[in-house]
Design a protein that fits this description.
Blueprint lengths: L1 H24 L1 E5 L13 E5 L2 E11 L2 E15 L2 E4 L12 E6 L5 E4 L5 E5 L5 H4 L2
Antiparallel strand pairs: 1-2, 1-8, 2-3, 3-4, 4-5, 5-6, 6-7, 7-8
């Protein structure tokens, strides 16, 4: 009886691990500049939260005060060690489907693959819930 329950227990544990993996990328990520630091202000950042993705310009100064400008939004999913972002369909800033390699550990990073490779690092000073639509 215990042997029959083992595959079910393993399946439950694997399904429970998926939200934990998503939580490891949830947050705000900035592109790494030439100095090796994430650029988290004055330029666009990527926001991942609960399966939603957005590319935003945080704290854009306007005559009406500070606002967040959203270039586009979409969804994302995690497949193993890859973060896959669905295409963004907007007139002003369309984006193709993108894939990022998730590097976990002491210095987490997202490594964008494809024709325009880039490295992103977390921006802990920015709150994703305040930036994503």
């Amino acid at each position: 009886m215990a042997r029959a329950a083992l595959p079910v227990l393993i399946a439950i544990l694997l399904l429970a691990a998926e939200p934990a993996r998503a939580a490891s990328v949830d947050g705000v990520w900035g592109f790494v500049g030439p100095d090796g630091e994430a650029r988290c202000s004055g330029t666009a950042v990527l926001v991942f939260q609960d399966g939603r993705y957005a590319r935003v310009l945080p704290k854009l100064g306007t005559l009406a005060g500070e606002k967040v400008y959203v270039f586009g939004s979409s969804t994302y999913r995690i497949s193993g060690d890859r973060l896959e972002v669905a295409p963004v369909y907007t007139w002003t800033a369309p984006e193709p489907e993108r894939s990022y390699l998730i590097r976990r550990g002491a210095e987490p990073a997202l490594l964008r693959e494809g024709e325009q490779p880039a490295t992103l690092r977390p921006c802990p000073e920015l709150d994703a819930s305040q930036l994503i639509p």
